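FIELD: query
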Amino acid sequence: MTWNGSAQIALVLTLVFVSAFPVGRYMAVVFEGRRTWLSPALAPVERGFYALAGVDPQRGMGWKEYAFALILINALHFLLLYAILRLQYYLPWNPQGIAGMSPRLAFNTGASFVTNTNWQAYSPESQISYGAQMLGLTVHNYLSAATGIAAGVAVVRAFAAGGLRTLGNFWADLTRCTLYLLLPIGTVAAILLLVSGVPETLAAYAQASPLDGGSQTIALGPVAFQEAIKELGTNGGGFFNANAAHPFENPTALSNVLENWLLLLIPFSLAIMLGHMVREPKQGRALFAVMAVLLTLGVFGAYAAEAGGNPLLAHAGVSPAMGNMEGKEVRFGVALSSLFNVSATGTSTGAVDSFTDSYLPLGGLVPMFLMQLGEATPGGVGSGLYTIVVFALLSVFVAGLMVGRTPEYLGKKVQAREIKLAMLAVLILTLFILCGASLSLSLPSGLSSLANAGPHGLSEMLYGWTSATENNGSAMAGLSADTPLLDYGLGAAMIFGRFAFMIPVLAIAGSLAAKPKLPPSAGTFPTTGALFVGLMIGVILILGGLQFMPADALGPLAEHFAMLAGKTY
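FIELD: result
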């Protein structure tokens, strides 16, 4: 590790942390329906959408109605995206004449983009057309991001006051999120990427004549606009197979910083938004601190592992001065590569500017473990917020057990119903990850997808199921995922991981919203100080460690010690 590398990481994280405060305040204004500086231009558009759809934005929805509306639009859009992917040959803007996807791959890809996972079991340059990219994937990058944010906002409203019978209006939340937040920032970011060299064209692929003869096909496309929302909405699906390591997605160190900033901005801002919406900014800052500490530890943990270089190569006489550069771009180096990788897995983005399959065992363990912690550090847009709230409820429950009092959080008593639903949401995803990975490692069709044997092969499969179920979308490159088992299995995991967690959380919100909001008393456990931040970090780490440490010990930890012993598989 170097001072220069550490300073690069510190600079990007500082930009994110500083930006989160004004953006969080702005988001609170948007979702409370108050006037913003964009209202003169966008309010008439917003009212027009409500009029066309017959929506009354002032009519609140109970948690069941809110959840039904959320599932309904995502189910309809899943069917629409499936049809687009199957029939893309007949869509406009297909200069390459790319054929429609197979049923199983269309199912996997549709589930992926609807659930904000953006797992890619296909090669974008050869298997998806410009029209499908724009009409299908880019649209769902906005929809899935807005859906997650809307669910997070609904959970926050449960704590805003007592005796509430509704959580807001889903259609209004979805519309405001898209109009006032995602589209403005996404458009500005797309222009900045365009200026930096990211293409935005409907022209056919370019043909070049290399100096050594022959010809080379250079893939192009309408990249910049999708790249912006890919990062801003913590989506992660790349326009090219190499994702953000491709020079047309991420040309320079400055574009790399911009994309890293984009993917972290909204998840951290949502914690600040919570504080403003419940009229207790310190509460939001406490959740912000938990997210920031865990992400920072993960970034420097991965950086330390990768900066040390491969001891086997060092023993063979290769200088470790540049660290482990396998699978990394020289223009980014180890520090910014580690930061981007951990940022993308600490959120549910899944974008990469380096390849986890080439990381050293401990460097690869960090992003996988952050996903196993529940994507709460800081998590995806919206999903990170309601996940960290679930951990906050579990933390005050643990504190209540210690002092023998009914736990409270943000003025709401946390009782058996909420804790049961919280544990159901947390444990059911773990069951799906471990059972899916173990089943795949037990079947010949699953083992045939692995490029490696031994602990690294186990890590590849475990990483894949973790990434799909936690709606991250990144992968270790050694896993060939376009098989019947993984197309259908991981597709189901994405849908399950999104909604089997989201629905119990909305049920918790409905239960808490109806309760009276109590003023703090002498026995109230404070949830704004360092003690609570430390307790939450401990609860998150222990839950993740106890559930996944045995599997991680057989994968990356075993591979680390095998590497030190000089053993290969």
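FIELD: remark
The chain has 19 helices and four strands.
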